[in-house]
Amino acid sequence: MSLLDTYHALPIKDVEIGQMLMDVMVIIRNHQLRLPTDYVIMIKALVTAEGAARQVYPELNVIAEVRESVKRLAKARFQPDVIWRNLRNSFANLWSYQREIPRQLQQIISKLDSGDLRLQLNHNKLEKLAQSIENASNRLTMAIIVAAIIMGSSMIITTGIGPYLFGFPALGVIGYLLSVVLGLWLVVTIIRTKK
């Protein structure tokens, strides 16, 4: 609404096309809409061209300058013979489709009946995704094993059952050392793959 309020009462000669297009782009971005790339490039080119032209000739009226070209293009596009040619092409395409579609449907139904209908999927770069999933699952498995060793070692140490190493049950100490080594190895592999 603010865009309409800004421009609807302005005389055409006072409308700055570049600024108006920039305002439109702001609204599009605020509402998380996406324009085709060609339109974005066209808008940037128009904004740049109008800005440069206004620096050279401040009294420039873009609407007045393009009015004749727009009229000529509209007249060329909407001439009766052009409209008739487009309609004729559309009807020709429709006629070919109405003959092709029943035949294609019949082929699909016959393949369904005979069990020959197959679905073919083309997957690109799924190997990389599969490798990433496999690496993540391997790390998760290793982390669970390290956690289990730590828990088991803690339970063994609390029992106080010999033999002893450094004044603690040897099996618990060995479990702690093993979990430290495996944990460090896991951290190193994670850091290495991120590089």
Keywords:
195 residues, mainly alpha, 2 domains, two-stranded antiparallel sheet, 7 helices, 2 strands, 2% strand, elongated
Instruction: List segments where confidence is low: pLDDT < 50 over at least 5 consecutive residues.
Output: none
Mean pLDDT comes to 76
> How large is the radius of gyration?
36 Å
Tell how many strands the DSSP assignment holds.
2
Which strands sit side by side, in order, in the main sheet? 1-2
Strand-residue proportion: under 5%
Oligomer: single chain
Order of helices and strands: HHHHHHEEH
Decide which structural class fits the backbone.
mainly alpha
Description:
This protein is mainly α and 195 residues long. The protein has two domains: 2-77, no CATH class; 126-194. It contains seven helices and two strands. It has helices spanning 2-7, 17-30, 37-56, 62-77, 80-114, 126-159, 170-194, and strands spanning 164-165, 168-169. The protein has a two-stranded antiparallel ribbon with strand order 1-2. Strand 1 (164-165) and strand 2 form a beta hairpin. Helix 2 (17-30) packs antiparallel against helix 3. The radius of gyration is 36 Å and the shape is elongated.
